[in-house]
Amino acid sequence: MKKLNLMICTLAISFIANGINAQQSGEYHLGFRVSPRISTLGAGLEVAKGLTPNFGLRAGFNYFSYGYEATESDVSYDLELELKSFAVFADWHPFKGAFRLSGGFLINGNGLSGNAKPTSPVEIGGTDYDLDSVNLEISYKTLAPYFGLGWDTTFGDEDNWGFV
Predict the structure, then answer these.
(1) What's the domain range around 26?
(2) E strand segments, 14-161
(3) Which has more confidence, 23 or 66?
(4) Which residues does residue 68 pair with via DSSP β-bridges, in sequence order?
(5) Collapsing DSSP states into helix, strand and coil, what is residue 45?
(6) Using CA atoms, how far apart are residues 121 and 119, in angstroms rounded to an integer?
(7) Which of 48, 51, 88, 99 could be 58's S-S partner, Cβ–Cβ 3.0 to 4.6 Å?
């Protein structure tokens, strides 16, 4: 519990200091960026634009595909993972600094499919059985809401780095 309280206090102090620093510098710009990205949704590209000192928009896409085929213990496996998404976010920078709160939507094309099939009959109690395959299909709703927080220096008085 003490570690959690310390972490919350540290984050609060950094947010306040970040906002004070941005307000004192007076060199604010409404940046524009196009950047590559790597996330748990795959690799992609993102575009961001500041509209006001406190508000910006971002849009981007991600893609990753992975296939796996193997035979283990007389079972043939065929799996396919495909991650593809398009996102639109509105970013609010409450302190006119790098800290941001984000909301938006992802158009989701992520899915996992596969099957497993025995390569030979299975013996149970001295009797051979021919088994059919086991199939897997996982998909998600097409539209997913998003809420997040992070740091982004596209807008403000510094152009260093950002993360969500």
Answers:
(1) 2-163
(2) 32-39, 42-52, 55-72, 75-92, 99-108, 111-118, 122-124, 127-129, 134-139, 143-152
(3) 66
(4) 79
(5) strand
(6) 7
(7) 48
Quick: pLDDT tens for 92-121: 989 887 889 999 999 999 999 999 999 888
Q: What is the pLDDT of residue 24?
A: 47
pTM greater than 0.90:
no
- Of 152 and 51, the structure prediction assigns the larger pLDDT to 51
Amino acid at site 78? D
In contact, 164 and 149? CB cutoff 8 Å: yes
Core vs surface per residue 44-77: b (16+ CB within 10 A) or e: bebebbbeebeebebebbbebeeeeeeeeeebee
Q: Which residues pair with 7 in a beta bridge?
A: none
How many domains are there within the chain? Answer: 1
Tokens at 36, concatenated:
């590559």
Quick one: tokens of 115? Answer: 């099957």
Render the burial of 89-118: b for 16+ CB within 10 Å, e for the rest. bebebebbbbbbebebebebbbeeebeeeb
